[in-house]
Structure formats: structure tokens, C-alpha cells
């Protein structure tokens, strides 16, 4: 078993904001059910405001990720426990939402896939395991590594970020404490300080919500910048089930003004690709020409249309 790196003093955990006691919920076990959920809701309301205070850092991170992906790099999330699960969740939503290959955005959890549903003893406490996973998952200097740790001190995440920096990959830290150990040497540090949890130390609550909001922004804003969105529509959505096939048709209808029947025909001709269907309709071109236009503009609809002006 990998051992914790000794330079991290675990006795200092109680000094972390995420481990602090929330005085507002000191009588939590005496509240009614309605009182408990009201208390949780009141605390949850603080999260978006905490995220708002770090939007500059989130924006800087998006710029870094976008640049890397435009140059052929990838985005990796690394975390342990809840943080790792949130990274995997966000990564797994990118292919169906934005039509990206699974390898473009990857989520890695300390302890591997089994840790998604059950804690793997000692995994998050191993600096060395973090270092090893950087190489195990093939991270290169062209990639961006996002280390996620609510506490900001998880040894596994520190090991990931330290090793990623050695190979000159861009690094971003996401935590809910400030100062944060995982900030060391990173290109961007995003510290969303949401305060002590309703249930002391249960960082799947406010901290987890804050992390989810930040990860939502990182991938969504990046994909918008990469041309995966037209207006506010998911034009790169993959029509892998009936609901999504219908969504593709509605997107075509909304963008082009086509009837349902025409949108269905266009979708069929474009093999379910909304972008191709939209270009075909708006420019009066064939599927082959629409595909060519999208290829030369890196999939950006507005630029593809302007090619014919």
C-alpha cells in the first residue's frame, strides 16, 4: 500500500475551513425534517456567491484549456473521493453533450474505477500514487491537468500536480480552502471558499456543489469557445437515443426555420449531425460541401457560413 507523504501534517486538518464547525447547525440533530432541509438550503445559497468571487480565475483556466485543446491537447481531471467522482461525471458528459471523443476530457479518481462506488484504502493519502497516475494515463506536456481537492491538501492530488508540472503540462487547482496546498506551482488556482459544512467535514455538500459548478463552467465555456455551441444550442449533441434524436430535429428547426418534416429529412441526410444539417439548409449546399466547410473552420458554424459570403 502507498504511504502518505510525511510532509503533510494531518493534525492540522482541523484548521481547514472545510473541516471547521458550522455554529449555525450546532443543534442539527434536534431539528425537524423541515428544519434540517431549510438549514441545508440556507447554506447552499452561499455557494453561487462564493463561486462568483473566483470567476476571474475560472476564466483564466478556460483560456488555458481552450488553447490546449485547439492545439491537440486534452483535459484531465484528477481527484479523490467526491472530488474524483465529480471530475469523472463532468468528463463523461462531454461526449454526448458536445460530440467530443472520450479521450479529449478524462476524469481519474484515486484508486481507479472501483473507487467510484467504494473508498479505496490509502489511495487519496498517497503522493506517489498521484505521480504514477500521471504517467499511467499518458499525460503529456500538451495537456491540461486539473487537480480537485475540497480540502486543498489531498496528497494524491498534490502528487498529480507536482508530476504534471515536471512534464510541463499546464496545471489548475480547484479547492474550497485558501490558502491551499495544491496551489503550489499551478498556472491557475481556483479556491472557492464556501465555509464550514452543515454536517461538519462532509465536503460532498457545499464544497461538492461548488466544485460541480466550477467544472460545469470549465468544460461548457471551453466547448463554446471551440464552436461546439451555436447561440445557446447544443449543436454538437450526439443523437444516441430517441430523446436526443428529437433534440437534433428541434435544434435544426430553431436555427433554420425548417418544418419538423424537413428537419427530420435533413437530420437523416446528415446522419444525425445537427451542424451539417444546419449548414446544408442555410447555405443550400450538399452534405459533402457542408462537411468540408465545417472541417476547414474547425466545426464553427458561423465561420463555415461566412466562407460562402
UniProtKB/TrEMBL annotation:
Kindly give the InterPro entries that the UniProt entry links to this protein.
Answer: Etherase_MurQ, Glucokinase_regulatory_CS, MURQ/GCKR, Reg_chr_condens, SIS_dom, SIS_dom_sf
Which pathway?
Amino-sugar metabolism; N-acetylmuramate degradation
- Residues passing through the membrane, by range: none
Natural source organism: Brevibacillus formosus
Kindly state which reaction or reactions the protein catalyses: N-acetyl-D-muramate 6-phosphate + H2O = N-acetyl-D-glucosamine 6-phosphate + (R)-lactate
Q: Taking every annotated instance into account, which residue ranges of this chain make up the domain SIS?
A: 65-228
Which Pfam family, any one of them, does this sequence belong to? Answer: GKRP_SIS_N
State what protein this is by name.
Answer: N-acetylmuramic acid 6-phosphate etherase
Amino acid at each position: 500500500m502507498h504511504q502518505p507523504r510525511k510532509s503533510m501534517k494531518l493534525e492540522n486538518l482541523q484548521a481547514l475551513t472545510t473541516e471547521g464547525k458550522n455554529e449555525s447547525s450546532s443543534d442539527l440533530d434536534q431539528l425537524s425534517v423541515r428544519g434540517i432541509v431549510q438549514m441545508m438550503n440556507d447554506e447552499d445559497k452561499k455557494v453561487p456567491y462564493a463561486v462568483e468571487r473566483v470567476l476571474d480565475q475560472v476564466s483564466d483556466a478556460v483560456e488555458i484549456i481552450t488553447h490546449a485543446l485547439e492545439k491537440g491537447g486534452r483535459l484531465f481531471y484528477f481527484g479523490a473521493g467526491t472530488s474524483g467522482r465529480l471530475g469523472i461525471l463532468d468528463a463523461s458528459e462531454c461526449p454526448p453533450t458536445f460530440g467530443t471523443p472520450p479521450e479529449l476530457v478524462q476524469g481519474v479518481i484515486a484508486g481507479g474505477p472501483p473507487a467510484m462506488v467504494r473508498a479505496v484504502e490509502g489511495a487519496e493519502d498517497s503522493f506517489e500514487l498521484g505521480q504514477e497516475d500521471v504517467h499511467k494515463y499518458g499525460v503529456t506536456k500538451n495537456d491540461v491537468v486539473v487537480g480537485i481537492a475540497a480540502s486543498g491538501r489531498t496528497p494524491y492530488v498534490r502528487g498529480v500536480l507536482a508530476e504534471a508540472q515536471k512534464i510541463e503540462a499546464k496545471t489548475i487547482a480547484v479547492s474550497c480552502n485558501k490558502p491551499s496546498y495544491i496551489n503550489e506551482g499551478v498556472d491557475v488556482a481556483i479556491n472557492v471558499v464556501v465555509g464550514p459544512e452543515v454536517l461538519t467535514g462532509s465536503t460532498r455538500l457545499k464544497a461538492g456543489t461548488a466544485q460541480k459548478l466550477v467544472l460545469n463552467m470549465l468544460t461548457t465555456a471551453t466547448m463554446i469557445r471551440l464552436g461546439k455551441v451555436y447561440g445557446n444550442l447544443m449543436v454538437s449533441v450526439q443523437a444516441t437515443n430517441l430523446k436526443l434524436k428529437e433534440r437534433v430535429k428541434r435544434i435544426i428547426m430553431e436555427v433554420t426555420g425548417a418544418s419538423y418534416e424537413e428537419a427530420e429529412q435533413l437530420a437523416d441526410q446528415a446522419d444525425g449531425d445537427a451542424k451539417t444539417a444546419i449548414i446544408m439548409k442555410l447555405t443550400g449546399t450538399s452534405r459533402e460541401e457542408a462537411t468540408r466547410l465545417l472541417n476547414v473552420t474547425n466545426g464553427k458554424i458561423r465561420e463555415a457560413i461566412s466562407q460562402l459570403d
